[in-house]
Description:
Strand content: 15-25%
Number of helices: 7
Oligomer: single chain
Mean pLDDT: 85
Strand order of the largest sheet: 3-2-1-5-8
CATH architecture of the largest domain: Sandwich
Low-confidence stretches: 309-318
CATH topology of the largest domain: Immunoglobulin-like
Order of helices and strands: HHEEEEEEEEEEHHHEEHH
CATH superfamily of the largest domain: Cupredoxins -  blue copper proteins
Distance between the termini: 60 Å
Shape: elongated
Number of domains: 2
CATH class of the largest domain: Mainly Beta
Number of strands: 12
Amino acid sequence: MKFPLFPDEASTVAGQTDFLYLTLVGISVLVMIVVFLPIMYFLFKYRRGRKADRRPVELPEMPIEITWTVIPLIIFIGLFVWSARVYSMIERPPPGAMEINVVGKQWMWKIQHPEGKREINELHVPMGPVIELTMTSQDVIHSFFVPEFRVKQDVVPGRYSTLWFKASKLGRFHIFCSQYCGTHHSAMTGQVIVMPPAEYEEWLAHGETGPTLAQSGEQLYRELGCSGCHENSTIVRAPPLRGIFGQPVPLQGGQFVVADEGYIRDSILLPAKDIAAGYTNDMPSFQGHISEDQLLELVAYIKSLGPAAGPTTTQEAK
């Protein structure tokens, strides 16, 4: 029976992660050998009753102290810098990534493609492009883990977390929830299915399709009455949303915050949290009235809005 030491390396970061891990293991083994082999040797050589020269030995103490302090320090600083660079690379998605939404729910993974395609416990992606997952939980803490890609990210209720990967192999790769989440935690599994780009486009075009996330978000935006306040309303003074995503927003206290997915989410659910400068908190909270899937649709729609006409400074609504 074949038992691999490591899962397959199926992403562009897997090799670097494994190399760093093996380096740490190798250095740990080397330190163990340097420390414990002399201990074992002296344990037998100088045991009670054994004839041995036990006279004190004069050694250059300062050079020895400096050597075993400076050399490990240099090694550990080098390891820290190396691991920090790998961590920074894993935590920061490259620009131009293909964005896909993931909602964790006891005990399944719900996937939403921007084109409108939806999946449960399966994630179809093309090989080659960078894939960025925007994830949240509908109930408790989960953790999205793909061993072959060497990526793992906690999925927490009430906030968005991101994870990215670039698949380097075709095939099917396991998804696990690596955070205990209840009775059927062990059954919260799935598969990432990596396909050639042409096959992925064909898969997107076939089967059950519907409106894109942005189109669904626009419909919900109008059903909830958001357009009545944010589109040149003469009754309620609310800031425009066009071109806001990714831009700095001035707040009442003089601070600035970037209008990312998390800020838009908070603006919908907790409108009093960060009130935009120059506006009052007239927006109602939609907490408990819309689902996580609908929140992602609204965020996708707001992200899709182009810049406002004319030299208008956009701000987020509260």
